[in-house]
Amino acid sequence: MLNKRDFLAGGAAAGVFLAMPAPAAAQRMREPIPHRTATTRNLFKAPPDSLPNAVAVVPEGVWIAEQKMSGPLAKQYNMPEPADLHEAAWLVDWNGKVLKTIMTDSRNTSGMTVGGGYLWMGAEFPGNDGIYQYDMNGKLIARRQVPLGPPEDGGGIHGALWHDGKLLVLANRLHAILRIDPVSWSPEFQIPLSNLAERYHAIAWDDSTQGGAVWAVTGNNSKSYKEGQYGLHKYDATAGRLLEIVDFAPGSADPHGLAVHEGKLISCDAGIHPGWPNFDSPSHGYIFEIDLA
To answer: What are 290's strand-pairing partners?
Structure first.
């Protein structure tokens, strides 16, 4: 998950960054942000021996992105180097039965979405990060970097969603949610992430708010599941302001991916978490539902 200290300050092209007049910004800062608590319910396990780190919901079921620890990450997490570096994207039904498998070149996959007839995989492995675009038969269409950065390394991705013909990504380097035109690959709009959370991960669209909103998974810097504090931030998709904060109740699953199914948020518990012992969460490997009631 993205650490707020990784935030890269600096300017950007005019018209891309969200701007708010100073008086309005000050007023927003004075307004209390609503809080509520969520619980989670395990649905089914991801394919065996996998680290599910991103999800996307389609009419047929759920796409699950595999994450593999390799190179320096394998050493960091004390895991064996995988024999095959390709990471899978599995389409499963709502019982967890695998319906389709696509093997991808994405490395340390941490974001995924489906849209426009394509599968989009967000990677954050140094030297292999960016967005991998595949057709639904597993053919690589393009690999691109996050805009507004070095053309050879735009930084890692920690979430992706498709809405209304646009691709939105949670970009680690920018510490922001960036909307991209998928054809021209031009950045269109940016939502800076609040520093009220220490870590950020996946994103999902919310239609219940007028004009739309974006949910972002949040977390804290911690050394174990017991110390973990995770939840959600909800951002206005047209103004970019933080609308709501959700805290997960004790005993909840550890959220990594995020998607929406029939008005419910769906997530996955990868089983590994920065700073924690491996598989410390009791819900590791599960796809689960988030209850915001």
So the answer is: 40, 265
Distance CA 215, CA 192 (A): 13
Closest CA to 259 of 218, 229, 217: 217
Q: What's the CATH code of the domain at 285?
A: 2.120.10.30
Could you tell me if residue 28 is inside a domain?
no
pLDDT of residue 1: 52
The pLDDT score that the predictor gives to residue 293 is 72
243 in a structural domain = yes
pLDDT digits (tens, 9 = 90+) for 139-163: 999 999 999 998 889 999 999 999 9
Distances in whole angstroms, Cα of residue 64 to Cα of each of 45, 73, 245, 262, 264:
11, 21, 26, 18, 17
Residue 90 lies in a domain: yes
Strands, E assignment, 26-123: 35-45, 52-58, 61-66, 87-92, 98-104, 109-115, 118-123
Q: Tokens for 78?
A: 């004390």
The overall average pLDDT reported for the chain is 91
- Residue 29 sits at φ, ψ, to 5 deg, of -65, -30
How many domains is the chain built from? 1
Specify whether the CB–CB gap between 191 and 213 falls below 8 A: no
Q: For position 245, what pLDDT does the model report? A: 98
Identify whether the C-beta of residue 139 lies closer than 8 Å to the C-beta of residue 90.
Answer: no
pTM of the entire predicted model: 0.89
46 within some domain: yes
Mean pLDDT by 10 residues, the chain (293 residues): 42 38 46 94 96 98 97 94 96 98 97 98 93 97 95 93 98 97 97 96 94 97 96 97 97 97 96 96 98 87
